[in-house]
Amino acid sequence: MEATTNDYQTVAEIYNEHIRAGTATMDEAIKTADDIAKWVNKFHDREKLFVLKENDATIGWGIIKRYSDREGYRFACETAVYLTASKVRKGYGTMMKKHLIEVGKQLQYKHLVAKIFAHNKRSII
């Protein structure tokens, strides 16, 4: 489901798990709900933030962002998926990635990019 302002705090908390671990993002500064709101408020109409819920609790999120605002990249987007640590290796990441691929098609993206650290085998396999 598409994220709402009510989800931003949990999105930030999940992202902060990964920032602290230093294994899945190049971000180093801890994020707040306001930071997530700033992301979303700057979104182009072909950028989306989704949350994954289990029993009404947000357990992960996924994002589709334009790869570049340069015209030649109009069919390229970047995708990312983040799950809370207790929910990895249970198929949720795959579920969210498949959702991002489908939405990417609907948004007329033809090239989806995922930046993954080489040591992050869970995201590669």
Structure, described:
This protein is an alpha+beta fold and 125 residues long. The chain has one domain (5-118): Aminopeptidase (3-Layer(aba) Sandwich), CATH 3.40.630.30. Helices cover 34% and strands 23% of the residues. It contains four helices and four strands; from the N terminus they run ααβββαβα. The chain has helices at residues 8-21, 33-41, 92-106, 121-124; strands spanning 48-54, 57-66, 76-83, 111-114. Strands 1-2-3-4 form a four-stranded mixed sheet. β1 (48-54) and β2 form a beta hairpin. α1 (8-21) packs across α2 (33-41). The chain is globular and about 40 Å long. The model has no long low-confidence stretch (mean pLDDT 91).
Label this structure with key terms.
125 residues; 4 strands; 23% strand; alpha+beta; four-stranded mixed beta sheet
SSE layout and pairing:
Blueprint: H1 8-21, H2 33-41, E1 48-54, E2 57-66, E3 76-83, H3 92-106, E4 111-114, H4 121-124
Parallel strand pairs: 3-4
Antiparallel strand pairs: 1-2, 2-3
Helix pairs in contact: 1-2
In short:
The chain is α+β, with helices and mostly antiparallel strands and about 120 residues long.
Q: What's the average pLDDT?
A: 91
> How many strands in all?
4
Give me the CATH superfamily: Gcn5-related N-acetyltransferase (GNAT)
Treating each run of at least 4 consecutive H or I residues as one helix, how many helices?
4
Strand order of the largest sheet: 1-2-3-4
Largest sheet: 4 strands, mixed
The percent of residues in helical segments reads 25-40%
Write down the secondary-structure element order.
HHEEEHEH
CATH class categorisation = Alpha Beta
**Alpha-beta content class:** alpha+beta
Radius of gyration: 14 Å
